[in-house]
Amino acid sequence: MKQKTVVTLVMSIFVLANQGIVHAATSHPVTGESLSDNQTFTYRLLDEVPTLDPQLNQDSEGFNVLRDLFEGLFNQDSEGNLAPGVAESYIASNLNRTWTFDLRKNAKWSNGDPITADDFVYAWRRAVDPATASPYAWYVELSSVVNAAAIIAGEKPPSELGVKALDDHTLEVRLEQSLPYFPEMTTYATFFPAHQPTIEAHGTAWTRPGNMVSNGAYILTNHVPNEYHSRQRNPMYWNNQATIIEKVTGRVINDENQALTRYLADELDQTGIPAGQYPNLEDQYPDEATSAPLLCTYYFAVNHTDSADPALLNVKVRKALSWSLDRDVLVDSVLKGGQYPAYNFTHRATAGFEPPVIEYGTMTQAERDAEAKRLMAEAGYGADAPLNLKLIYNTSESHKQIVTVASQMWKQKLGVETELVNYEWKTYLDIRKNQQFDLARAGWCGDYNEASTFLDLMTSTSGANDGRYFNSKVDELMRESKTLADPKPNYNQVEMMIADDMAIIPIYHYTSVFMLKSDIKGWPYNNVQQNWYSKDLYRSAP
Amino acid sequence: MYLPIRIRIKTADAPGSVTGRSLWQDASTRFFRNRAAVISLLALLSVGIFAIAGPWLADWSDDAIDWNVLGNVKSVGMPSFETGHYFGTDELGRDLFVRTAKGARVSLMVGVIGALIAVVVGTLYGTVAGYFGGKTDSIMMRIVDVMMSIPYMFVLILLLVVFGRSIILLFIGIGLVSWLDMARIIRGQTLSIKNLEFVENAVVTGVPPASIILRHIIPNLLGIAIVYATLLVPNMIIYESFISFLGLGVQEPDTSLGALISSGASQMQYGTLWQLGFPLFFFIVTLSGFFFLGDGLRDALDPKDSGR
Amino acid sequence: MTSYILRRFMIAIPTILILIIFSFMLMYAAPGSPFVGERPLSPEVLENIEAKYGLDRPFYEQMFNYIRGIVVDFDFGPSFIYKDRTVNDIIAQGFPVTLTYGFLAFIISVSTGTLLGVAAAVRQNTWLDYLAVGVSIGAQVLPNFVMAPILVLVFTLWLGWLPGGGWQGGQLPYLVMPVIALSTSFMASIARITRSSMLEVLNADFILTARAKGLPLRRVIFRHALKPAMLPVISYLSPTFVGMITGSVVIDMYFSTGGIGQYFVNAAINRDYSLIMGVTILTGTLTVLFNLLADVAYALIDPRIRY
C-alpha cells in the first residue's frame, strides 16, 4: 500500500514535470509537427446546450461538451473504435451477459478525489432513478442492464440495478441478454461517472463552473447561457500530459450564415457549412471545407394507416414515388455537401454493415422514371385520375428545398400534385405522431454505431415508426438479430423488405459538412458519429 | 407657464351644416397638389399592377424549377432576358420575377389589411375608452395591457391547429396584434381632445356620444392615425414572414416579400445578391410609398395646413 | 392623482393574474410538449419526467402551485429545457443584457427621432423635411434580420473593427451593433409620429397667437409646442420601451448576446412552459407599469386630463 502511494506520488511529479515540458514543447509528441504557441480551439454551437449533467443529456452538442468534461469507461478514437478511458480493460463472460471492467488506479476527479467503481454505480443508478427523470433512461434500458426497465417503471428501487463495485477499481455489469457491443455503449454520456458529494451539495446547480467536479481532460471555467462557455485543460486528468489544446470555447450562434461570417473573420476555428455552399467554399478554402460521413439518414415517412390517401396503401404507388425521385439531383444540386443518395435505410458507413444490393439503386434514373410511370399507370393513376398528396415538414430552409424539388419531380414525372405544409417543430411532431399526413419528412441519427440503431425503427413496437409500417417478418428478424453472433444477414433481409414494401422513402445518407481551420489537426474525420475529443486536437505552427 | 392646448377644430360633418362635402373636396385638392404624395400614390399603383399583372408577363410559373439552373444558380441563375428569368432565380432555380410579383401581391394585402384593421379597430376602441373614461377606460385598457403581453406564438399555433390553414387566418393573426399600439395612441389623444371646448359644448347641447366620437373626436386624430397606420405597413409585411415560419401564413410554392427578403438575406454573402435585391426593392418602394402617402393624407386632412 | 396611481396598482394585481391564467390556458391547449422530440420517449420515462415537473397534476392544481410559488417564494420554477437552471436564474442573467442594449437603443432612438421629427415639422416641405423623411425611410428599409448580417459583414469581416457577436458583460465593442440594429427602425417611427403630431400643434391657435406676438420660433417650439406634441409620442413610447428592454429575438440570435429577447420565440418553440410564463409575466408587469407611467405623463402634460 505504502509503495503504491510512492508510485502515485512519483507519477504525479512526473506528470507535473511533463506538463511543464509539453507547455514549452514546440513539436507534437507523435507526429513531430511543430506546434503553435496558441493552443486554443473555438467552435460554434448551434444552440445553447440544455444541460451539462451527463445523466440528463440527450443533446448531441451537449455530448460534444460532456465528452471533454467527463470520461466514461471507454472513449472513441479517431476511427470510432474503442479507446481506453477510465477502464483499462474488460472481460466478457456468461455469453456476453456479464462484463467486468478494470478501472485505472490513477484516474482522479478534478478536485483530486480518486475515481472508484462506486462513482459509476452511483451515476448509473442515478440515470435510471425515476426521481432523476432522465429522458435518456431508456439508453440504459436499451443496453439491457439487469432491472433497468423495472427501475424506470418504478417497480424496483435503483439499488437493484445490475451494476456492482467488486472493489474500488473493478466494476461488474450484468445484462439481461447477450450484447456483444456493450463496451461501445459505455462511450455515451449517460454512462459517465458522477461525483456524488458535488451533486448532493449543489443540487441542479452542480453543473455551474466552480461547482462542477468532473473527470475529463477539461474542466468548465465559464458558462454564460446562449452566449458562450469555455473549458480549460484539467491538470488532474490521468493523461493530462498528452493534452495539447489548453482552452476550448464554444460560442452559441444560431444563424449558420452569421457563424460562417464570423469564422471567416477568424473568430471561430470550426463551424458548419450552410446547405448548398460547400462547393463554393471548397473552391475558395480547399484546406478548410470538409465533408465527412455522419451516421444519420434522411427519408420520407409514408403513412401506412387509413388516415392517409388510400393510394398509398398500394405498394406500386409507393414505389413509383420513391423511384421517380432523382436523388442525385437532390444531393448534387440542392444539398451539395457530398451526401450519399440513399436507397436503403441504414447509413452506409455504419460499422459492420454492408448495404444489400437494392434493385432500383442499381438502375439509371431514366430506367427508374420509366418504371415509376408504368407502376403509376398500373395502379390506376394518371392525367385523368390525378393523385394529390400532403407532404409535411418542419420549418427549415433546407427541408423546404428538398420537399420543393421532390414535389416538382413528382409533378413533372408522375403528374402527382403535392401540397407542401410546414409546421413549427413541436406542432409538426404532434401531427406526424398522429398520422395526419400522407408523406412526412424525417431524419434519424444512430445512437450507436451498429445497424440495429436504424432498423429497430421499422419494428411495430418502435415509438418513432410514425408511418406505422407493420410487418411481423421484420419484427421477427429484428428480435432474432439480438441473439445472433452474426446479425448481418438479418439486417440485410430487413433492408430488402423495406425496399420491397417501400416502407419508407430513403433520400440520402448524411455527411457532416463543416469548415475547420487548416492549422487545427487531429480531427476524427473517420469517426462516423463525429465524436471529437478536444484532447486529441492540436494546432500546428503556421 | 402652461398654455392650454387648443388643437384646431376639425369637424367632418358638423350638425346642421353642409360644410362636410367641401371639406373632403378641399382635402383632395390639397392632396393632389402635394407632389411627393402623388408620386408615391403612382408608385404604389405600379407595384399593385406589377403584383397583379406580373404573373401573366412571366415566362415561368411560380413553382416550376428550371432544371438547367438548379445547382448552378450563382453562375447561370442571374437576371437575364435570354433565359426569361428577368429577376434571376431563387436558390432552387425558380423564376424570381413571377415569385416577386406573387409575393408582392400577398404582402400588399397583408400590409393594407393589417393597417386597415389597426385604423378601424384601434381608432374605435381607443376613442371609446378615452371618451367614456373611468371604469370603461380602465377595463378596456387593462385588456390591451394583457393582450400586449400574452405569448402570441401560442395564439397563432392554436389558430392553425384548430382552424387549419387559410389566408383569412393570416389576417386574423395579423389583426390581433396590429391594433393594440394604435388603440393606446388614439385613447391618449382622445383624453386630451374630449376636454376641448367644442366637445364640451356638444356634450352640453345633448349630442349623443356616438356622434361626438365620430364627428368631433375622430376627425381630430385621423392625421396621427393615418401616419401611424403607414408605419405599420412594413411591420406587418415582416411580421407575416414570422407567422409563415410557424406554418400559419403562406405556404410553398406561394410566397411573400418578407419570405423572399428573408431567404435572399441568408444568401447575400454567396454572390446571388439579386435574390435579396429585387424583393427588397419592391419592399422599399411600398414602404416609402406608404410613408409619403400617409404624410400627404395627413397634410391634406389638416385644413389650416397650407403654404407655411 | 395619488389615489389614481394607488388604484391602478390595485388593478395591476388582477390584471397580471388574468394574464397568467390566460397564458397558462393557451400554452396547455397548444400541441406538443417540452419533452417530445424526434425520438419519442417511452411512456414510463415520460411519466417520470412529468411527475418531476408536476405535469401529472390536474391543470388547475398546476396553475395554483405555480402562482403560489411566485407569491410565496418569488420562484418562477425550473426551466423545462435548460435543466440545470431555474427561470429566475435565466431571467437574472438575460434581462440585464437586454435592459442594457435596449435602454441605450431607446435613448438614441428617442433623442434622434424627436429631433428629426421636430425639424421636419418646423420646416415642413423643405429640404430639411425631405431629408428627415429620407433618413427615417433609410432607417426602416432594412428589416433587422437584413441589417444584422450586413453590419457583421461590414464591421467584422471587412473592416475588422468590431467583434461579430457575444456580450462579454456588456463591453462597448459588443454593444455597438446590437444598439444600432435595434434603434434604427424605432427611431424612424418616433420621428414620423413626432412630425405629424408637431404639425398638428404648430397649427393650433395658441401657437399661431404666440408666433403672431413675435416670440422667436425656437422659443415657441421648445417652450410651448414640444410638450403637447409629445402626447402621442408618449403613447407610442411606453409599449415600445417595454419591447426594447425585453430585447429582440433577431438581435439576440444574430449577435449571440445571451439576452432574454430570444426566449419569447425559443421558449415557445421548445414549449418550455415555465420559461414562457417567466418572460410573459415580466413583460406583463413592465407593460402595466409603463402604461401607468404614460398615463401619469399625460396628466402632467395636459392638466385637463383627469381620470
In short:
Chain A has 542 residues and is α+β, with helices and mostly antiparallel strands.
Can you tell me about this structure?
The complex is a heterotrimer of chains A (542), B (308) and C (307). Helices cover 32% and strands 20% of the residues of chain A. Chain A is α+β, with helices and mostly antiparallel strands and 542 residues long. In chain A, strands 11, 12, 13, 14, 15, 16 and 17 form a seven-stranded mixed β-sheet that branches. The longest helix of chain A is centred in the N-terminal third of the chain and has 23 residues, at 2-24. Chain A starts with a helix and ends with a strand. Chain B is 70% helix and 0% strand. In chain B, α1 packs across α11, α4 (96-132) packs parallel to α11 (274-301) and α9 (209-245) packs parallel to α10 (257-266). The model of chain B is unreliable at 1-20 (pLDDT under 50). Chain C is built from twelve helices and no strands. Chain C has helices at 2-29, 43-52, 59-73, 87-122, 127-141, 144-158, 172-202, 205-212, 217-245, 249-255, 263-270, 273-301. At the B-C interface, α5, α6, α7, α9 and α10 of B face α1, α5, α6, α7 and α8 of C.
Question: Could you list some keywords that capture this structure?
Answer:
heterotrimer; A: 542 residues; alpha+beta; seven-stranded mixed β-sheet; four-stranded mixed β-sheet; 19 strands; disordered N terminus; B: 308 residues; mainly alpha; 11 helices; 0% strand
